[in-house]
Amino acid sequence: MTMKKAQDQIIVIFGATGDLTYRKLIPSLYSLHVQGLLPEHYAILGTSLLLYSEDEFRDKMRTGLHQQKQEPNLDLVEEFLSRVFYQYTHANDRASFGGLKEKIQLLQHTQTLPDNIIYYLATPPELYGIIPENLAAQGLQLQGNGWKRLIVEKPFGYDLQSAMELDRVLQKDWEEQQIYRIDHYLGKETVQNVLVTRFSNGIFEPLWNRNYIDRVEITSAENIGVEQRGGYYEQSGALRDMIQNHLLHMVGFIAMEPPASMQSDAIRNETVKVFESIRPIRDEEVQHSVVRGQYLAATIKGQKVKGYREEKGVHPQSKTETYVALKFFIDNWRWGGVPFYIRTGKHLPTRVNEAVIHFKPTPHYLFSRLGSHDSCNQLIIRIQPDEGLLFKIGVKTPGSGFEVQTVNMDFHYSSLAHQRIPEAYERLLLDCMNGDSTLYARVDSVMATWRMLDPIIRAWNTQPGIPVYGYPAGTWGPEQAEVLIGGPDKAWRHPCKNLSDDGIYCEL
Ligand code: BG6
After folding, report:
1. pLDDT digit string, tens, across residues 97-117
2. Predicted local confidence at residue 371, as pLDDT
């Protein structure tokens, strides 16, 4: 990865004993350390309400690194861990922030660090307001002698009103330039590659509009359930967990106008215009434009899988959705009349994330039509796990006559020798350390996405007749989602069609 080296600083992680720190943040910081991208002087200060000693905290992080990094370099791990520290802080107890301040000052003194600090909120969302307030009460957000930045995890609010309230609380003490709203999908190389595909290749732009594109489809499927996160998920559901941020940001990149430059605001100005142009779904349309579902107990490859309502932390009559499929339009000159379909779900047959651009058929078809009337031309942007680009075109089937078959032009990132795809958090952490907010969500885009989703949340809360369809774990979600996209030739592209005994057969 070619990236800039950051200035000397301290990274304070709230929620340091939680899963995100252990699985993503510490391993990503370690990777940056190995690549020599961290500053010469830095400290990582984990903090939470658990009474860990520094050694206990380091032991936990060491275990995480050994589990997740294949053959980590033992010396480098120890060198990295010697920069990792721990301090108890109770988010709701303002007095404990005094202890945090003293610890920061001590580290600045002993590790020769300037007053540049990132605060990362890897905590439950209900603490996103109180922690910054308590930091500010100690003056820990002031930028007199160095910069201070605040990374706020998603979801930013639960709906438009709570997002506005959270923003109000933050903006009391923090400037907008200090606030980094993270969406790790924007840190994915393949999501950024949407911009490169569109704007570095002259061949796509002339076709990238309502004249040549029939519809756009985005799928983000996971083959696991909510695991240990039932309590969080009950408050969130798939709409808030995946659509409001990850999937809509993918829509933003696919649908935006070319930015004036690659500067942070130039890009963010264009994505926010997309969100503001999404046609609001009216309350009475919700039932027909949005399908929600919840996974049911099933047996997958001989293994019993719990239904969502049996998961730990989940109410036995919960109506929280673990699946959402949604149809909407972007009312602007480029996209007028082109439907966008997005879907996401837990416990689907496989883990895959991809965007499919369906091009329109030719105006007059010269060849025999054996099957579908839909065009064979699709551009499939594979976000993960098999990162790459797939273009489907028609070619002549050898032999007499003019029979057409669809073939694949297929690029896999894995074919680029010696080019590793970095973890999304590596890129985003380093960007924040360098003060680059391009790949972080600006407040207006967060509000615009909530504005779009608010009618859905309202309708689900107030119209008990809108069903939550059950779907057996391991299937592609409720059948009603097929109706949503349906037409004579239209169906969701099922990237992985069949489950076989020895694994998953993928249809490319
Ligand atoms: C997180 C969601 O933001 O993204 C999780 O909270 C989800 O529920 C995860 O599993 C998916 O991320 P990725 O990078 O594995 O696609």
Report:
1. 999 999 999 999 999 999 999
2. 61
Residue nearest to atom 8 of ligand 1 (CA): 241
For residue 384, which atom of ligand 1 is closest to its CA? 16
**Mean pLDDT of the region 235-241:** 95
CA–centroid distance, residue 246 to ligand 1 (Å) = 9
Closest atom of ligand 1 to CA, residue 188: 14
The runs of H, that is alpha helices, within 111-223 are 130-137, 160-173, 189-200
pLDDT tens figures, 313-322 = 999 999 999 9
- Side-chain half-sphere exposure of 447, counting CA atoms within 13 A: 9
How far does residue 75's CA lie from ligand 1's centre (Å)? 31
Catalytic residues: 246
Ligand 1: does its nearest atom lie under 6 Å from the Cβ of 222? yes
Q: How far is CA 103 from the centre of its chain?
A: 33
Q: What is the pLDDT of residues 284-334, one digit of tens each?
A: 999 999 999 999 999 998 899 999 999 999 999 999 999 999 999 999 999
Q: How far apart are the first and last CA of the chain?
A: 29
Question: From ligand 1's centre to the CA of 251, what distance in Å?
Answer: 17
pLDDT tens string 407-455? 999 999 999 877 888 899 999 999 999 999 999 999 999 999 999 999 9
Q: What is the pLDDT of residues 244-268, one digit of tens each?
A: 999 999 999 999 999 999 988 999 9
Ligand 1 atom showing the smallest separation from residue 232 Cα: 6
* Cα gap 308→322, rounded to integer Å: 8
**Of ligand 1's atoms, which has the minimum distance to the CA of residue 154?**
3
CA angle 382, 435, 201 (to 5 degrees): 35
The rounded Å distance from CA 136 to ligand 1 centre is 30
Q: Which of 24, 186, 189, 242 has most ligand 1 atoms within 8 Å of CB, for mutation?
A: 242
Does the CB atom of residue 241 touch ligand 1 within 6 A? yes
- Helix, strand and coil content of the chain, in percent to the nearest 5, comes to 40, 25, 40
pTM above 0.90, yes or no: yes
pLDDT of residue 206: 95
Nearest to 443 by CA among 129, 53, 179, 70: 179
Question: Which residue owns the Cα nearest ligand 1 atom 10?
Answer: 222
Residue with tokens 């639960």: 158
Residue whose Cα lies nearest atom 2 of ligand 1: it is 241
CA 286 to CA 259: how far, in whole Å?
Answer: 32
Q: Where are the beta strands (DSSP E) in 69-132?
A: 84-88, 117-121
| CA separation for the pair 26, 64 (Å, rounded) | 8
